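Dear colleague,

Following up on Tuesday's group meeting, I ran the structure prediction for the two-component complex that the binding team flagged. I've pasted the input sequences exactly as they went in, so you can double-check that nothing got truncated or mislabelled along the way. The structure tokens for the whole assembly follow below. Feel free to forward this to whoever is handling the docking comparison.

Inputs:
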Amino acid sequence: MRPLPALASALVALMLASLTVGAADIRVTQAFSDPQALLVLLESRLPRTLSVVLTGAALSVAGVLIQALVRNRFVGPDTSGTAEGAALGLLAITILWPTSPLWLRMVAASLSAMVTTALFLAVIRRLPVREVMLVPIAGLVLSGVLGSVVTFVGWQSDLMQYVGTWLMSGEFSGVISGRYELLWIAGAAAGLAWFSADRFAILGLGDQVATGLGLSTAAVMRLGLAVVSVVTAMVVTTVGMIPFVGLVVPNLVARIMGDNLRASLPVVALAGAVLVLGCDLAGRLVIHPYEVPAGTILGVLGAVLFLWLLHRRPPRSKPAHG
Amino acid sequence: MDRRARIMVGGMALLLAALSALWMLQGLGGGNRGFILGLRGTKLAALVTVATAIGVATILFQTVAANRVLTPSIMGFDALYVLLQTGFVMALGSTGLTALPAGPKFLAEIAVMTALAALLFGTLLLRGARDLPRMILTGVILGVLFRSLSGFLGRILDPNEFAVVQSVSFASFNRVDATLLPWAAAITGAAVLVAWRLSARLDVLALGRDPAVSLGLAHRAMVLGVLGLVAVLVSVSTALVGPVAFFGLIVAGLAHGLMRTARHAALLPAAALSAAILLVGGQWLFERQLGQAATLSVVVEFAGGLFFLYLLLKGRIR
């Protein structure tokens, strides 16, 4: 079975299902005769479905990039200080300039996410040996430390409500038309990465090999850092961080397809969209008409998948980085 | 204990006594003295109990894991306890839960926690000794998994019950459940006494599996027993103040640095005392001097996290 068409049809099916599930009791088939149904569809269900798909796809691609930057399979945008960095930037701009325009808040979040991710990369470079498992541990602890700073500042400035929506489990129930469009930027940034997919694949081979092949590693690193930070910042700003997607999806796809990123990035994006949409749908159905956030479900599912990835036998083909 | 260790422990005990006196008596105006002293006394007892539990649990765990960078919290013990609490609330409902007497309920929680922890982490430690970093990462992710599961169950509960769960999911040295305190102090005392009586065997255990076995130690039973003790102590501290990730790491580091010995008879009291000094002193500073009662746990987390990263960069994890 080819992964791309299979995933694409799964995604279409899930998207259609997502249009029919929600708290409002409407018939999708009557959308053109019943103005109420049309309103719910266009203002709430369609935006929500799109936002989930964009988030899943963009976060998974960001995961591939950060794994190439760090050359480690066990990190993701949520365990490298990136999300906490974005939240710090948002906090700072909220405190310094409460009435700042939206674009400025996005820029602040993205820049701050870049700084903390660069900090993570600097810490990784100084780890004593290339011990594969130490890198994710360092990332998790750094995220924790940064998170405690965010919490502290949030408490002090009485902005804990915001911090909660940014960093505690992300959810899509608040998405309506006009409230999620930032995620298109995340999607566009992830799409940009596809054009340089081969460069990231080479970067994953290691500094010396990449330089020997005539690649400017610094430039590619900067691009990857920018994409990861922008994607994460947009997701944190609009729906809140979704854990483990950027970590497990690239791993699962690489197991099947290897590391030819030009071929596998579209599959990664689709798989991420399918995974997050599946979790969001499950969250809508578990205690219908109430909801469990998609981020909470992914926290459980992602952790289980991660443990499985940690303890499975390595695949027969040798991974390019690790 | 040799002479140096005795002097150190004596000095620390004196310092703690001085801090406790400061905590009890500083700024005691006229007014209702008995009431104020009662409040302060409860809090002081709680802080010392928690500090002792965390200090001793961390040293014990580091001995079992043969590693100075690990703490029970990093490996997900606290998160397991919070998950258990959530499970209890789910099974009984918050009304049923509050109707139960606090003491026996607490004992039941600790019993379940001990069995689970010995099973889970015993398997992990006895199997994972070959590949330490992988084992640590597994523990960290287990912690994340337990927290996510608690969050998931919490979402399914109704909001009132969720509030009960949420109150135990965040660390705060400010909130102490006074009904649990006598139980917690008694259990901690018993566990510490057992650990103290085992200190010679712990010294042997710290040598590593093969030397310990050849010196006649029942290695497997000892590992599981010590893990059980750790689970008891972590349950106590988590029940009283919530999960604290890196505090134990600082305390164990201090104990090793101050005592410069591998003997548990010296390390255990040193860890407990330095933890109590930090907590009582820190809480006094933040609550009385800076008027920020809630920030101690955040500062401790921050400092502990940085210390952990420092140890990682120094290559101490292997």
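The mean pLDDT of chain B is 84.

Cheers,
M.
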